[in-house]
Amino acid sequence: MEKIMLNGEYFMIKLVEASDDESESQSGRITLIKFNMTKWIRQLSRMPNISIFLKRLKHENVITEAHMSDIENEYSYGSQMEKLILIIQQSADSTSIYRFCKELRNMHPQLADLLENKNTDGKETDEYLRNVEQEFVLEFLRNTLIECLNCHIPCDEIHIALEEDLHGHVEFSALKTYFPQIFSNSTFVEGDKSFRDVTWKSPPHKEANEKVDMLSMTLDDFSTHIGDIMGQEIKPELRDCFQKAIYEEAITANIFEEMKSSQLKEVFAEYLGSINYGKGMEHVLKKLQQEIRENKLRSGIKTNIRLQQLREFDQPSNNLAYYQGAIVKPQTGNLLVPVHEFRTLIAPNKHWIAKETLRFLAACMNSRKNGTMHFGIRRDGDGCGTIEGIGMFNSKEVDEEISKCIKKCFYGEHLPFVMSCIREMQVISVRDCEHVVYEIDVIPSSLYSIKEIIPLRFPPKGPHVEVIFIYEHHSLCEIAMGSPILSDIEKICTLRLQERGIIESKVNGCLIDTSELRTTLISTLTGKDSKYITDEYIPIIVSGNMNGHVGVRNDIGMATAFSSAKFVLDFDASPDLRKSVENDKSLFTVKTAEDCLDKSQIENSSNPVWIYCNGNTEISQPRMNLKAWTKSRLAGVKCCLDTIRMSIPKGRARILFLLYCELTDREPLFDLARDMLASAFQDECIIVTQSADNCKELRNDVARRVGDNEMDRCILIGPDWKFLSDVVRSVFRPTSNDVCKLPSSSQAIVVEMTSRERTDLKLTDIDIVSGEECVIEAERMSEKELQENEHEHQRRFYKGSGTSWWNFYYHDHVGKRNCYKRHLGKVNKILKSKRGEQFLETHEIKHHPGAGGSTLGMHLIWHLSQFKETPENAFRCCVVKQISENTSLQIDRVRNFKDVENAKPIIILVDNKSEDAVILLRSKLHELAYKTGTPGKLFGLIILISRCPIAKDKNQLADDHILTHSLKGKEIVWFDKKYKELEDKTGIDVKTLIAFNVMRNSFDEKYIMELTTNILKDVTDLEKEVLTNLALISSYENDHPIPQSVFDKMMNKPQEIDNLIKVPFGIAHTRKELQMLTFNRTVWNMNVSVAMDLLIARRVSDQNIGGISIISQPLARAIVLSLMLERNQRLEDIVNSILDLLGQHAHEANPMSKIFVKIVCSLFKTRQIEEIDNRETRLKFSDLVFDLEKQETESPRQTVLHTMSRCFDITKDAMVGQQLARYNIYIKEFAEAEKAIQRSLAIKPDNSYLLDTYGQIFKAHMEHVL
What we know:
By secondary structure, the protein is α/β, with parallel strands linked by helices. Helix content is about 50%, strand content about 15%. It has 55 helices and 31 strands. The strands form nine sheets. A seven-stranded parallel beta sheet has the order 16-17-15-14-18-19-20, sandwiched between helices. The radius of gyration is 37 Å and the shape is elongated. InterPro entries: DEATH-like_dom_sf (IPR011029). This is Schlafen AlbA-2 domain-containing protein.
């Protein structure tokens, strides 16, 4: 920013010193624009879609690839814009600056007006660029062409040469306009493919092959080649003469090679007119004949070597290599057996490859025929070919050129289908030479083909003609639009599409289940490496109007998707869809658009909210037309969307638009969807439909605002709603048991609790453990699915991502701790006791963080809850997720469910909850047990899991009292046995199971430090920023995962494209396009390095919000120590970094940010319990405060005050203010203590803890004075 400001001062001085004439000159205008770039830099820095802007500037050659890469490496959009402006100010010429303004105007006209200091809609800029273009084209024509009677040059050759000289794009219409100004005698008639009466001064440089294969050329190519040779080696006038002679006499390469000297003279002299057939011509023709003979001989020797198997269709080339001279004989068959086109080029270049690829692509799509285009294989006839290879190209540039031509030549509505059909280029090396073969596959699957024939504007360069390409009897045919046979061809292609669908449905039983379409849809919906949408996103469903299509409603079988969504916005007034999803259960909070005007109606719901946006016939609210809806319901729906946006961080929503029929601009959903796609939820929306026509109008409208690519990647099209429902359903996590089985006091009876009953009980604070947990889900799985499920849960458990009931279902995932039998014995003793001294008993398990206390508690619950064929021995068990005033009532409902008389005691697992919350739960349960329990009979048992700090003296507490990190005896044997078992299993790298290995080594500090140091070597610098913050928090608060969205801004960088290249998006998505297509489409934590992924665990918080933490507390501390040493940081620096991040989230309304704020505040508030003389007392301050105070700095106490004050200032958390006051009391700063507590009381004036602290200030002050 400082450099930009200095530049601004420099340009201001130049403007002030300039005369009036200089100010009005082009240089003065450029200086003014550069000055305005500095003046309006802050406005420019707020511009969204900067990645698209950079891509357009790169396309117009305003910036280079290196510039673009340098800019994208900047952290924020603002920094990126600042870097861009510096580059433009320092290195851009006048033309580039005007191009910058033009592209800026295309995206943001108001910003362009500010830069140009004019309100003329960019007319002066356009005029300047037109003049520059005109001068360049005229200069190019003067320098490269000369007049030559009876000569001609193809239009696309001149067009390509012009663009390569310019290093940019020029419309052919401009070339056509300026051409007569230089060559007035030259003729060009509309529809011609050549400019007449001109030729090259010197032919443009072409990278020819070492051996030109004339035998494989078509008649057209051969005639052009001979004409070019004669024109180049003798004189330009001969070019057209020989080309016309070869073509009209139908002389192929084989025929030409056999012609005698007298025959050559007889044929060609007739076409020369007044030009004599001389010795020079005969010599060149004889030389060409000799080349053909040598080529024949060369081919004859090599074709006897071997037959070559072609690359498997639609598969990567991997390490495949072809043998030069080998013969290939492709198979023939039905529409799924690919047709093969072989090309060897005279002068291979990216433009030629792109042109041939488009022709082939269109023909395969229209013929519904799979196909492969081979560049570098000579065509021999009878469908065979000879491998020769061509020179190496920059495949990235070729891919970009093909992509550019596809967008230019195909119409916008066809682009999604075209891009779905074509695969990326495969490069196969040729052995014993430096040549390669380029291959491109085309797969026009019936799943995403359209019924009509697809035309294109061809060729990509030169004058366009709208044509249709098609395969007929294995020959590629060109048909002009308007041809009388076109209607017959359309009928044939429609029948072929039906035929292809039938063939595909028979392949492998059902192609749909294994099709690439399904893979692509799932990948787009979930993102990279995620199985379910809810792993990383919060789903919202927008369901369109069904217009009474009952068949569509019957095909929609995705109840799991609807019930997993946080909101469903339904634009159909019928309640039938919701009722079919609920299936007689009450799953949703049902509201209407009118209800949403009161935000509290939808903000405070614990259930998913189903909002009828345009009427609800169930309560006699009819649908409205657009005008009435806008007046009566639009405000409510917009209010609802504002609430959704506020509750979900940017980039973390996944909006699914389900369009069942055509959506037009006369529908209320149209305007709403347009705003969501282009603005409020840009990059977070996906349209799911069975026909492109359903969203055609919406797609074209939004594409004008965000671009074709941005829009097309939002649209997923399937063959029908049964298929789409199956795909969508598969990306939502299956719901738990439909029926929860519970024991009862009657030994022979098992009580079943349905999902509806569970919903009616409103069990928001607890999870019930079924007596047959996981059994119903397991019975629904195939053997393969069971194995995959076991592998996944085992990997997650041993990696440190938490324990699930599946780990106990599979028996051998969890090893029994030495203390397991002792704890189980004590629990059984309590349950069997008949003393009746207590209504409520508590069994406490104390553990060091990460030592396995939570797993031990779940192990006990599993043993006590599961029927194991003896339900009479089981107890009703539940796990407390969160503690509120109503938690005890929910527990009582489960205890008495269908078993009011003589109910068995309920077992309650409470894992690492705060001391105040546990006291509240106990008191409420005691009160309830006293009121409703049976005298002399146990009401319930709490298994309390308590985390204890690791004592400074490790021998302070024996294993009998606390579960520590040390393994002993049978535990070590079990871990060693499991390690060997995992080593023998394929597909498991035991070294990556960090939690398992750390536990196996008894949390040895030296082992953890070495492990951490080695892993951190492969963590990126940006990831280390996240790790530093995350590790420090996990060092003190490892029980509470941090929502991933907290780090979104910090990690908002371009993604690694190498991994995305493999995704089946098609060739049109080249490396550069993937960078744009995937921008903000996936979240950062889906693309972390392997090393970072080893250190973090993904867990779910009490509020069912996903988050991450370091696998264990000792590992977190090792990471903090390693990074502090590496970066020469102090603990204070990391804490301040966390507080900087806290400042970004303190005022956010979404629950993820609120969780983060709460966790950071707890770092200053949570005081550990210490046991002294068998008495438990709380430490004076939190562990973080103690550690900050121990720093070897000049004033560690000032550091504590500074960090605590910052946290209090940012969060306004009254209890942080209390701790600040207490610390000031501790250091005898009574005036500051009084200020802090007064600020806290202003926030919570009636809080007894704060009032007590206020009194303690005066007490301590008095004691100090006395």
